[in-house]
Amino acid sequence: MKLGTVIGRVTLSKTVKSLEGGRFLVVSPFSRQQFAAGLDAPTSMSSDPSLVIYDAIGGAPGHVVGYVEGREAAQPFEVPTPVDAINVALVDEMFYSPFEK
């Protein structure tokens, strides 16, 4: 699972039948500096490319979400579904303590 900040929504004019009831969100993946700053720090955009994830649990712009990509993203659906990334968690709190040498 990866973490990222929701920075926008995608509006569709039509959708695949199996995806009805959910929405698509634009997510900026967390960088190492964002992990160190924590959730209370002002959010900034990651230098990594943003991605679009399918969301059926209620994420919104400004939320920190956990998402999975690839084959695991299609596992919650009963029929094969064209999804490459899916929201699996809404993050309330985060603790980060890197290993020190």
Number of strands: 5
Largest sheet: 5 strands, antiparallel
- Give me the CATH architecture, please: Beta Barrel
Radius of gyration: 14 Å
CATH topology: OB fold (Dihydrolipoamide Acetyltransferase, E2P)
* Class by SSE composition: mainly beta
- Average of per-residue pLDDT values: 84
Order of helices and strands: EEHEEE
Number of domains: 1
Query: What general form does the structure show?
Result: elongated
Strand order of the largest sheet: 3-2-1-4-5
Structure, explained:
With 101 residues, this protein is mainly beta. The protein has one domain: EutN/Ccml (OB fold (Dihydrolipoamide Acetyltransferase, E2P)), CATH 2.40.50.220. The relative contact order is 0.28. The two termini are 25 Å apart. 6% of the residues lie in helices and 33% in strands. It contains 1 helix and 5 strands. It is elongated, with a radius of gyration of 14 Å. The mean pLDDT is 84. Strands 3-2-1-4-5 form a 5-stranded antiparallel sheet, with no helix packed on it.
